[in-house]
Amino acid sequence: MNNLFTLSNLWLLIGFFGQLLFSMRFILQWLASEKIKRSIVPNVFWYFSLAGGIVLFLYAIHRRDPVFIFGQGAGIFIYLRNIYFILRNNKQT
Question: Containing domain of residue 88, as a range?
Fold first, then answer.
């Protein structure tokens, strides 16, 4: 009998979940821009970027893919930096 809940399938689900989180940032950015009829990047974009990036980074480590690890790892730093700017600016206002 083929077990649906194998460790390999769990990691596949984790990878798809990370990709879903990562994709949500573009959907939300598009909807926010459509609402005001100009291009904007809402703050939630960076939170979805971070969440999706972390999950995909873990998936890349599991897959032992150095290109994917490097790409997601670099992105995580950028997302954290943007969130830092958001939080810092919110405290100043």
Answer: 44-93
